Amino acid sequence: MGEEQARSRRNLFILIVLCVYLLLSLFMFDPKPFTGGDNAVYVLLAESIAQGKGYKDLYLPDEQPHSQYPFGFPLLLTPFVLIFGINIPLLKFVVLLSGLGALYFMTKICETLFKGKIYFLIALYTSIPIMITFNHWILTEMPFICLSLASIYLLIKAETGKQYFYYLAFLCSIYAVFIRTAGIALIVGIIVWLLLHKRYKQMVIIIILFLLVFIPWQMRNAGIERGGGYVEQLLARNPYQMELGRINILDFMRRIADNFLYYAFRVLPSILLPVLQSEVLLTIVGAILTILTFIGFITRINRRSVFETYFVFAIMVLLAWPYVWASDRFLLPVLPIFVIYIYSGVLWIRDKTNFRHLVPAFAGVIIALNIIVIVPLVRQTLEYNAAYLKGDRYAGYGLDWRRYFEIVEWTRKYIPYGNVIMARKPEFVYLLSRHKSIIYPFTTDHAPIRDAIEKCDYIILDNFFWTATSAFYLFPVIEETPEKYTILKKTGSPEFYLLKIESDS
């Protein structure tokens, strides 16, 4: 009876946590597109599939087949685009549901790992602001976390003797890889785990199932002429300056070191405790969290669970990625495992020091400090949404993005269809105006940029705060022949321009 009551209390706790997480996600729900270009690309790829055109970049003039992002996430969005059209709030709600699924599987995994003692751990996990923020962006992080945790949970269930859970786990993990390329670490981790446990039959099955999808996908991509996929970008010194060439061994070792320092002492502490702003505090807290992660990993390594094999390969991928891409987005998919290891490290220290209240004190401090961050975010989001409902379509955007969207909206109203616009974020141009659009080449060689301009009718010359690529690459080429361009539209400060490219005839 005692165990039954404990299980009922845990189920009630899980239900409360899911409701709180849902409520916070709705309070911080933003109906407008996120300004990262990826989310627009995902939506347009889903539209391409829904229209029966295949997997193509609709925003490009020639609608080239797309090969950079795997098809899993756009395919997930396709039924909703097919039925409801491009409905950004609805697609965001699909992501929100995947976030709820991720939290559910996290609680079930932790129930198994910590024998039901999950209250402080799950409360801490739920309080992490970035998990709530990403729960309304049309990006791959939350669906990937949901499927990866689902596969891990199903593998844990399979170990109880129910063999069919293996195959459900394999399907979830394979689909996760085709949502997010870096998820290959999950597949490799599962394969190595099966090998260590001499599950040879299951290992062969997951390899075959994976290759049945992976080989046709790779063959399809190999036949597409393109400027370079992830592998080429991974090997580049700087994926935004491909003319710098490929990295060598010393460059690669330096990249690993730089990524480790950045993720350990900046990204990880700022994700778990975004209230921290001081570099000194970030470094100190980052060191503490890194040590706790290491302790947690070592205390669990003898169990040879799928967590350890997945974590090792996920960290390898994380550290090998180009440093210019380093961000919280790349750490987020494995954040649940970091949290589990950090919590395991705290438990180990508690047991060694006999400090009974260490766990509630540790979790309580993080939760309290994160509430300090969450409350203003909720208040701010509610204010932005109120302004949005009153007619301010750009409420919440920075001033530079407001100017960009103003220009794009102007092209929708006053530029005839059938023209091509060069822009820093071409996917947004098509998403919001239906004008085909391309980006200029990132090169200091003016000839390729001039050739690209020749294929366009208009240029959006931006003045973004977050990047200076247009000023660095595009503006010098325009300056060479200013008589070729007519200003059709100029915004307020910061000034964005719509230029008409005059024909030579």
Fold blueprint:
Blueprint: H1 2-27, H2 37-50, H3 72-84, H4 88-113, H5 119-126, H6 129-133, H7 141-158, H8 164-177, H9 184-196, H10 200-222, H11 230-235, H12 249-272, H13 279-301, H14 306-320, H15 328-331, H16 335-353, H17 358-389, H18 399-414, E1 420-422, H19 426-433, E2 436-438, H20 446-454, E3 458-461, H21 469-480, E4 485-490, E5 497-501
Parallel strand pairs: 1-2, 1-3
Antiparallel strand pairs: 3-5, 4-5
Helix pairs in contact: 1-4, 1-5, 2-3, 2-19, 4-7, 5-17, 7-8, 8-9, 8-10, 9-10, 9-14, 12-13, 13-16, 18-19
Structure description:
The chain has 505 residues and is mostly helical. The protein has a domain at 399-501: D-Maltodextrin-Binding Protein, domain 2. The protein is built from 21 helices and five strands. It has a five-stranded mixed sheet with strand order 2-1-3-5-4, with helices on both faces. A hairpin with a 6-residue loop joins strand 4 (485-490) and strand 5. Helix 2 (37-50) crosses helix 3 (72-84). The longest helix has 32 residues, at 358-389. The chain starts with a helix and ends with a strand.
Total number of helices: 21
Contiguous uncertain segments of 5+ residues: none
Distance between the termini: 89 Å
Under the CATH scheme, which architecture of the domain at 399-501 would be assigned? 3-Layer(aba) Sandwich
Numbering strands along the chain, what is their spatial order in the largest sheet? Answer: 2-1-3-5-4
Q: What's the number of extended β-strand segments?
A: 5
CATH topology of the domain at 399-501: D-Maltodextrin-Binding Protein, domain 2
**Strand fraction:** under 5%
Report the structural category: mainly alpha
